[in-house]
Amino acid sequence: MYRFLLSRQWVILTLVALLLIPTMIRLGIWQMHRYEERAARNQLVSDALTAKPVPVEELTSPGHTVTTGERYRGVTAKGRFDTDDEVVVRRRTNSDDEVGYHVVTPFVLDDGRVLLVNRGWIPSGGLGETAFPRIPAPPRGEITVTGRLMPDETTEASGIKDLKGLPDRQIMLINSEQEARRLGSPVLGGYVAQTAPEPKGDTPELIGRPGDENAALNYAYAIQWWLFAAGVPVGWVVLVRRERRDREEAAAAAEEEKEAAPAPA
Question: Tell me, what's the pLDDT at 252?
C-alpha cells in the first residue's frame, strides 16, 4: 500500500521535508543566539544607566576608544562651554522624527583638555541647509555637566556618510579625532550626551534615554522555527495517510464498479 512513496512526486516531497527540518532547526538556533546577544546588550545598557556617575577623566582620555562596557556610563565633567567653536550635526531627528540638528559644544575642562558635549536636538527652523541655525546659549562660567558617555560615531557603525564640503561649523558625525584636528586641542575620546543641567526653555531638546532591544521577539522566533521543524514530519505522516486512504477508497470504488458491471452476454 505504500509503493506510491517510490513515485517521483513523493520522493521529491520527502527530500524537501528532510532538508527543511535541519534548516528550521538551525534558524531557531540562530534566533536564540540573537536573543542572547540582545539580552546581554540590554543588561549592559541597564547596568551602565544605573551606575553612579564618575568623573569623565576616569573613563576616557585623548585618543581613547570608548568600549561597549563604557558606553552609556554616567559621567560628570567640570569646566566651561566654548560656544565659539560650537558645531551642529546635520540630519538628526528627535523623538517625533522631526529632522533638525544635534548641537555639539566643546567643553573645556579645568586642565585645558576638551570634552565634546552633545547638548541635544534643535529644529532646522525652516532654514536652508547652508544657513547656520540659531542655537540657544548654554550656561556661562564654570559648571558641572552630567551625561552619558558615547563612542565616536563612524560611517561603519552608523551608516551615515561623512560628507565633505559642508558649510562652516556643520558636520555629519561626532568624532573626537576629527574635532581634535579642527580645534587644535587635546580632545577626550568619544563624547557625552548631556542629561544635566536641563536647558532653559526646553531647547536644545535633550537626547532621550536609550531603549531596550526587543530580545523577546527573537526568543519567540526561535520557538516558532523549532515548532515548524517538529511540524514537518507530522505533516508528512498526515499526507502519507491521506494518500493511502484516498488510494484505498479509489481501489474499493473501482472494485465495486467492476462487480456491479453486467456480465457479458
Answer: 79
